[in-house]
Amino acid sequence: MTLTGSQYKQFTEALLDAFESQQRLTELVKFEFGKNLNVIAMGGDLKEIVFKLIQAAEAEGWTDKLIAGARESNPGNPKLFAFAQEFNLAVAMPAELSARGAFERLIKKANIFIDINKWREKLGQIETQVCRIEFTKSNNTKEFGTGFLIAPNVLMTNYHVIEALDLGNANPSNVILRFDYKQLADGKIINKGTEYKLVESDWLIDKSPYTDNTLPTLDELDYALLQVDGFPGEEPVAKNSVPDSPARGWIKLPEQPYEFLPDTSLFIVQHPNAQPLKLAFDTEAIIGINENRTTVEYRTNTEPGSSGSPCFDIDLNLVALHHSGGPDWNPTYNAGTPISTICARLQNQGLLEDIRNGQPIYGK
Known about the structure:
This protein is of the alpha+beta class. It has helices spanning 5-18, 22-33, 37-40, 46-60, 63-73, 78-85, 101-110, 116-129, 159-166, 339-348, 352-356; strands at 130-136, 142-151, 154-157, 176-179, 182-183, 189-191, 194-196, 204-208, 223-227, 266-270, 278-282, 286-289, 296-298, 310-312, 318-325, 334-338.
């Protein structure tokens, strides 16, 4: 990978913003790449050292790994996020927040101005909290889906994604939860991701299967909570990253119901067709919500593998769990379950308070 002059400057400024001391940069280079920063990039000040580090990485052919490693050590840094987008190493943020009148009207009603840096920072954090779910069923077919952390060791996804596991048609021990999967625009995979597994027993914390009814009950919301082996939400994004790098964290469940106003925006962070993480959005997404608030319909794009993805409002607050596209006779919309409705069931199950408090949850 060869950087242009402007990219060189942008990357230098991003690294200086993300790593404010030479010690942190030294730890990044040592733990992520097994290299000695003092050997490859000595200098009189941190800016000179960063410049020489990028120069060495470019000469030796590991610039892409330096970008990815820096992001994993500081996933919420907006400057690193913006730079990584140029190389497909961060989920794509809209080039402009609005080009259509409806989106402008939404901003005037609900969010007069959006702080781009804070928006990037939050999206960068969400990016580390969403994973690809993958396993092979007993008939040797592969199953893919998307899931996301809502507590230190709890993953939310659709029930239909893991139905084969629940019915005994696949082995839970073979499930891989793959976070941080990175691929360049040219298809080169530079990070196969951070893998987690499910606990061997009691991996299913809670479930609410799907239905074909137009008015699902609280027991028909198509969601499942899975117990992860370990505590990915409390661990650094890169397990071998610098010691003081931020924890992965998890996506917070909302405290209040969201009002799904027609023709307002919806963002979905997903693994469509099992690809590396993508962001889909539509500025006039919301079609409507059903009578008992168990299904919301929207126009935001998804593909197979997107089931179990988190859906967000313009401020990147979690509002829905994506579960399906419209029926064959009406393939004009996608659909999800409002998170507030899922929260109502979690309250009945005695799980909501601990999840909101960030407590580890264990299967029964």
